């Protein structure tokens, strides 16, 4: 979700107004994802590098997040959407971390739909945290490097148990990945929209899904092989 600040700037509004509008859009895209029957939607809401923004912007973002979680926890439960958080949640303000933990626990049994929020997330810290956890498991005698494969290694990532993304969308015209789900996106399709996040509405989201549906995913095989057999789906 990129472009909140520029959306506001283009209207002569403060950046925080862009973030507020961005949160409104989150709600409509979650609804659109449900209507499109997606099993998992991951939103990159705050990166591990976003702490470097001015303190006032960081605290405004945290307040918005807290407000959003308070308001949406009930909605997620009603809609039977499981919340998962990807990132170093213990470094977030304790009130936010607590709300996240509580909502994750309250929605843990909903298996059909997942909303994953990447918060204080970065792929490199994810790998470092996974390596630490794995080394500790080895030290306890619970894991054996000789038999380590990707299926096991991926269970140490924040995203353990979630499907790999089929489609990654970035808004605001930037053609960068910015440390987002680097390993999980190994076979993902990318879609870049010039629209700022607050303007990226359900119709743009559906256009991205339609674009994705027209692509041929080969997973290392030839086009002929793929067209002869049904495509493997990760979601
Ligand atoms: C995305 O919008 C929201 C967050 C990263 C929290 P930006 O705040 O990055 O907006 P731009 O890139 O400055 O326009
Ligand atoms: Mg940005």
Describe this structure in words.
The protein has 235 residues and is of the alpha/beta class. The chain has one domain (4-121, 164-210): Decaprenyl diphosphate synthase-like (Undecaprenyl pyrophosphate synthetase), CATH 3.40.1180.10. It has helices at 4-9, 15-35, 55-78, 94-106, 123-139, 150-153, 202-213, 223-228, and strands at 40-47, 81-86, 113-121, 167-170, 189-192. The protein is globular and about 55 Å long. The structure holds 3-methylbut-3-enyl trihydrogen diphosphate and magnesium ion. 3-methylbut-3-enyl trihydrogen diphosphate is lined by residues 1-6, 22, 46, 50, 61, 172, 197. The site of 3-methylbut-3-enyl trihydrogen diphosphate (IPE) has 12 residues, from helix 1.
Structural class by sheet pairing and helices: alpha/beta
What's the gyration radius in Å? 19 Å
Distance linking N and C termini: 21 Å
Strand order of the largest sheet: 1-3-2
Shape: globular
Bound molecules: 3-methylbut-3-enyl trihydrogen diphosphate, magnesium ion
* Order of SSEs: HHEHEHEHHEEHH
Text of the CATH class: Alpha Beta
Structurally, the number of domains stands at: 1
Measured by DSSP, the beta-strand proportion falls in 5-15%
CATH topology: Undecaprenyl pyrophosphate synthetase
CATH architecture: 3-Layer(aba) Sandwich
Number of strand segments: 5
CATH homologous superfamily placement: Decaprenyl diphosphate synthase-like
